[in-house]
Specification:
alpha+beta; about 35% helix; seven-stranded antiparallel beta sheet; four-stranded mixed beta sheet; about 15% strand
Length: about 500
């Protein structure tokens, strides 16, 4: 079963394509979507188009240029023109300009919005991308904070640098990004001769169009808030790109290109699952908006973006749902102090998409052959095949009732600890989460003591003590290096 899960991971990896903002700047993981390893980029993960390069149904003759700029025409090229270019050996400057112009015309034709200005596009190798986005030192407080957060989610164990792990995941999976500050796109190619993937180009052009029409600034500052915002932005880009590529070989001639390939390296299923959330569930939100009012309803959503992952997972709750304000008092002794990274909130909010990633990761980690979920709970099948449009399911019994949360991180100078409080729609939802979290603790080598505390084995990547307190619709998780120190961190 576990080998099947890993194989499915590989299959899904080859389906991913556009990435707009990653909430992790990987130097500031809780920053808004446009913050990234280069401080200002909008990513594209691996997403392979199903379109072809068949010219049989393409336009044979180009229409004359319009007197003024119109939708579906850009810089002298109509959306349905056939271009005399070959992409296999790369594109020269004039060929690239023509391809970009045609793709811009196609994006605005599908998305029913007009570009205001031309978007610059650069193509680089993966090695060049890695060298370009190595990232600066995030600082000790942010590193401690981020390490504790990903340890709390059982995604990155003690002794590993969570920011470095995230940067590695991006370095192997990103196929491109859009930089709002430079108003430019960079495409990342794995081919020996860098080539242009039309689906990746289209996806990033949607982000450029969003930036021109709505702006990509966001006041989202926590992981869950950014997941909500990204659900709209990436859902919009994926829906537009899907409509674009569906016309390839039918209405349009498209560039022939090899499927996007992974950059190799050590891929992390749990992080990949978490990062893919906006693409997997965001299209459902956008489809719901379009059914209610066409693209105009999607446009309106940029004035009131989703407040968190829950509204993306359950579009019927948008825009009325709001996360509850969770209070979490500091009740630590003088031996422990709060970790407060500068320039960002001094608390974390990790919501239902992150909790789902924790549970899904137990299908693929190499520590324990058990799992707390079954593959068919998190992988969506279309008949016997994985559903390429929506491969993952984040709406698990332990996630759907999430209504808010808050996490504080502490240090005694050498070690870290945390308290994490979540509130739920009902007491039953809170109990479901607590049971699921107990299963996660057991999976990672936890043994429950007589007083109900969990002690994780020394051999575990997460060898600590954990207490789980349930009170009505509220669950509080406390972590410390030892049982004795639990009450020092949070005197319950």
């Amino acid at each position: 079963m576990r080998r099947q899960s890993v194989a499915l991971l590989c299959a899904v990896t080859l389906l991913l394509a556009g990435c707009h903002g990653f909430e992790s700047s990987l130097g500031a993981p809780e920053q808004p979507a446009t913050a990234t390893p280069t401080a200002d980029t909008v990513f594209t993960l691996e997403l392979v188009s199903s379109g072809s390069g068949d010219n049989a149904h393409a336009s044979e003759t180009a229409r004359p240029d319009p007197e003024t700029d119109v939708r579906g025409w850009e810089n002298g090229v109509w959306h349905n023109e056939t271009l005399a270019v070959t992409s296999e050996d790369g594109l020269n400057e004039s060929e690239r300009a023509a391809v970009v112009a045609r793709s811009m015309a196609r994006v605005e034709f599908v998305r029913e919005l007009e570009f205001e200005r031309t978007v610059a596009v650069e193509v680089i190798s993966r090695e060049a991308y890695r060298n370009r986005t190595g990232g600066s030192d995030p600082g000790e407080s942010l590193r401690r904070f981020d390490n504790a957060k990903f340890e709390a989610l059982f995604l990155v164990g003690e002794g590993r640098d969570s920011i470095a792990v995230q940067r590695s995941e991006l370095g192997e999976s990103v196929l491109g990004y859009y930089s709002p500050s430079r108003e430019a796109i960079v495409l990342v190619s794995d081919a020996e001769t860098p080539t242009v993937s039309e689906s990746t180009l289209a996806h990033e052009l949607v982000h450029a169009l969003q930036d021109q029409q709505f702006g990509l600034d966001s006041d989202a500052r926590t992981r869950d808030a950014v997941q909500g915002y990204n659900g709209l932005v990436e859902g919009d880009a994926v829906a537009t790109t899907d409509s674009y590529t569906a016309r390839c070989g039918v209405q349009w001639e498209c560039l022939s290109s090899e499927p996007g390939a992974s950059g190799g390296g050590d891929r992390h299923f749990g992080l990949g699952f978490l990062l893919y959330f906006p693409y997997s569930d965001g299209t459902g939100l956008v489809d719901d908006r379009r059914e209610r009012g066409g693209w105009a309803a999607v446009n309106d959503a940029y004035d009131e973006a989703p407040d968190g992952a829950r509204e993306v997972m359950a579009p019927g709750e948008y825009p009325d749902w709001e996360p509850r304000d969770v209070q979490l008092a500091d009740r630590s002794t003088d031996e422990w102090e709060r970790v407060r990274p500068s320039g960002r909130p001094d608390y974390a909010v990790v919501g239902p998409s992150a909790i789902a990633a924790t549970m899904a990761y137990t299908l693929a980690d190499d520590y324990n052959e058990s799992a707390v979920v079954a593959p068919d709970e998190v992988f969506n099948y279309d008949g016997r095949s994985l559903d390429s449009a929506d491969p993952y399911d984040y709406a698990l019994p332990a996630t759907t009732g999430w209504s808010g949360g808050r996490m504080h991180v502490y240090t005694n100078g050498t070690e870290t600890a945390y308290t994490w409080r979540t509130v739920w729609s009902t007491e039953r939802d809170a109990e479901a989460f607590a049971r699921a979290w107990a299963a996660v603790l057991s999976h990672w080598g936890g043994t429950r003591t007589a007083d109900g505390t969990w002690v994780l084995a020394e051999s575990s990547p997460f060898a600590d003590a954990v207490a789980v307190h349930v009170s009505g619709d509220t669950v509080t998780v406390v972590n410390a290096p030892t049982e004795r120190e639990l009450n020092e961190v949070y005197d319950a």
